[in-house]
């Protein structure tokens, strides 16, 4: 019998609220994900290049950028176009968010339920869109 090696998934979280970033990081690490967190969008592309995330969690309201513009950068760059993105926001809801040209793979309004977050991440990693 061959032993299956489970490769841990890398998740890059871009969230400016340190408390939320810490909570997401702790939750994901407890579920055996490898997590890197940024609290601003500066150098995002270098972090993506270095960390090679399997999924990104992206806040819409960042101090130095709009997450929807960052999503456009990700989607229009050949190297990052296929990285799944879960967007989160305290200001917007699934009903009133205007994504623009590029849609994320999923959206969660803050405050969110931890189980919802994990379900969406697992679903997106499995190829689902929410």
What this model shows, in words?
The chain is an alpha/beta fold. It has a single domain, classed as 3-Layer(aba) Sandwich (Rossmann fold), CATH 3.40.50. It contains four helices and seven strands; from the N terminus they run E-H-E-H-E-E-E-H-E-E-H. The protein has helices spanning 18-30, 44-51, 67-76, 114-125, and strands at residues 10-14, 34-38, 55-59, 61-62, 65-66, 85-89, 106-109. The chain has a five-stranded parallel β-sheet, sandwiched between helices. A two-stranded antiparallel sheet has the order 4-5. Strand 4 and strand 5 form a beta hairpin. The chain is globular and about 40 Å long. The mean pLDDT is 93.
Topology:
Blueprint: E1 10-14, H1 18-30, E2 34-38, H2 44-51, E3 55-59, E4 61-62, E5 65-66, H3 67-76, E6 85-89, E7 106-109, H4 114-125
Parallel strand pairs: 1-2, 1-3, 3-6, 6-7
Antiparallel strand pairs: 4-5
Poorly predicted regions are none
Which architecture would the CATH scheme give at its second level?
Answer: 3-Layer(aba) Sandwich
Q: What helical percentage do the residues reach?
A: 25-40%
Chain-averaged pLDDT: 93
**Rg calculated over all Cα atoms:** 14 Å
């Amino acid at each position: 019998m061959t032993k299956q090696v489970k490769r841990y998934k890398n998740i890059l979280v871009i969230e400016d609220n340190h408390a939320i970033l810490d909570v997401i990081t702790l939750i994901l690490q407890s579920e055996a994900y490898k997590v890197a967190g940024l609290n601003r969008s500066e150098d995002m592309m270098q972090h993506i290049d270095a960390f090679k995330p399997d999924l990104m969690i992206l806040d819409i309201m960042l101090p130095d950028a709009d997450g929807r513009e960052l999503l456009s950068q990700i989607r229009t760059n050949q190297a990052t176009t296929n990285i799944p993105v879960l967007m989160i926001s305290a200001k917007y809801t699934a009903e009133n968010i205007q994504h623009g040209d590029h849609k994320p793979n999923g959206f969660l309004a803050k405050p969110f339920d931890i189980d919802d977050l994990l379900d969406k991440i697992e679903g997106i990693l499995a190829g689902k869109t929410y």
